[in-house]
Design brief:
The complex is a heterodimer of chains A (378) and B (282). Chain A has 378 residues and is α+β, with helices and mostly antiparallel strands. Chain A has 13 helices and 16 strands. The radius of gyration of chain A is 22 Å and the shape is globular. In chain B, the strands form three sheets. In chain B, strands 10-9-8-7-11-12-15 form a seven-stranded mixed sheet, sandwiched between helices. Chain B has a six-stranded antiparallel sheet with strand order 4-3-6-1-2-5. In chain B, strands 13-14 form a two-stranded antiparallel ribbon. Classes of the chains: A alpha+beta (378), B alpha/beta (282).
Amino acid sequence: MSSQPVFSQPEEAGFLPIAQLSLLVTKLMALGYRCLGPTVENGAIVMRELDAPDGLPRGLQAAQAPGRYQLTRDPLNRYFAWANGPQAIKPLAFSPEESLWRVERDAAGALQFAPVLPATPAQAIIGVRACDLAALALQDAHFLQEGRRDAHYAQRREQLFLVAVQCAEPGATCFCASTGDGPTPTVGYDLALTELAEGFVTLAGTVKGQEVLNALGLAPATPQQIEAARQQGQTAAASQTRSLPSRNLRDALMSRLEHPRWDEVATRCLACGNCTAVCPTCFCHAESDVPALDGQASQHVRMWDSCFGESHGHLHGFNVRPDIRSRYRQWLTHKLATWHDQYGRSGCVGCGRCIAWCPAEIDLTEEVAALTRSEVKP
Amino acid sequence: MNTPHAIDAGPPHAATVTARTQESPTIFTLQVRLDDAAAQAAYRFAPGQFNMLYLFGVGEVPVSIMSDPEERDGIGHTIRALGRVTRGLAALQPGDKVGLRGPFGRGWPLQEISGCDIVLVTGGLGCAPVVSVIHYLLRRRERYGKLVIIQGVKHAEDLIWREQYDRWAKLPDTQVLVAASQGGALWPWHVGRVTELFGLANFNPECAVAMMCGPEGMMRSAAENLLARDLPESRLYLSMERNMQCAVGRCGHCQFGGAFVCRDGPVFNWGEVKDLLEHRGF
């Protein structure tokens, strides 16, 4: 983004002792960043502003399963042993609701239009995951296309400082190893931490990350620490039990558009849109007008939308996707198939959120397996 | 717009309704002029493209551009009053203010097809993208071969611009084939399905281009009929409709397979979309 990537090599890693994690937050706060970190809210980990540099919670794990998310104690009392929460970076770059422009009507009836740009503080997010970074890269591809930059997204995006952490304890719903997006962050971060018992192996990914790293004055990580960090990533990858059968399911799914599984999943899916709300790559949004009470001005607002909603496929007088079958198929085939046509890869980063937060316990990996199991096109 | 901006993502440009015509009980045409004279003079579009029209305090709708691309005084939009925005737009009178963004998307391939016979197929309630092309072709008649206009409607009274069809039918090298599933008093055309008329269409498949617009079922069936008449798939085009809200390929509502209809369409070659069109619900 605004800072050139200069990924430092593992042998250049610094080592941040466990007791000094708050120094990193202190440093970022001193640089003017509003620091967001993991916070427990309504029984889940969410990213909220940290009141104090030592405000990061410790010893939490997130037990996840289809339709389940439960915070538990981490016997090793680590800072980042929770796999993920329902949201991470997406709402901070692509706002769930914001004004795009406003219009005023003067006494003569003439309309004056003006853009509304968000006030965006510099924000540091501590504890983002490899899947979140991969998802952010996909959101960048959508909102920052050459010649098609979305000014609102760009403004927020440029202000982000991303402190990634390696996932040592993937959730049971995670499958980032299978999509190639984790569990060790490799791109897209300013700083990347790997939590070991005694501290963090710390790498810089950008010039601004390197500046923060330099300012911390860390001792270099030892070869043993670097090796332990690498092994921890491998173990975490190997521990994942869910997977997708291929990183490119385009043809496999597009040749099965009338598969009976679509009808079957439609009997379970509630079309609630939870999966699209927690998905870090879903970008659909609705636009609507919010007129002022005095009738002399109006705000043109966009809000996250879901292809599971009734209005998404609305077209003068009829709905192109009137049933849940077609909406689930629209979502899954866009995410895993036609995303390849649009952005050169799958739109799924293996975070597993759509599985954990589905009230009907629908598991994307299981649906894909059922759809693609048969060799012959049904 | 022809401005330094790569895309006209908003806010809209202030514009004024200069004329309003009632075409049928529910269909009307608004002639709109951008308030910024330089912007109006610089405004360029291709037939088949669309604008986003904004009604103050209510919202935006995508509307196909009806006027001729060489007309500089204003921009024509034929609209059916159906939803909140279009019903509000229907109440506008000359002098009223609107917002306008555009033009958007890909129009008809009119440059590439000169010299060819042209088959225009429309269905439903007066299909603006194709009717605008008919006007365009008639004003440049010498550049094209035979013209076949095929229009299907459900009820006889759904056909708007009826006298235009009568007029077109009298032009040389122009064939007009109209069908209504249900006829009415003094209905001079065919009663039945429009697809029953394709056998009568007089064009040379070796040098013909077809452009279609209307309900997808009708277009699928029209495509079958035209391909059966040996029209090559590469010269069959259609204009698609989807729920376009941002018009710049961002909001996701008009996503159709790998395309965003607002950006990559609304005009597509048949080959680009035929596979997905076979499946309802995209």
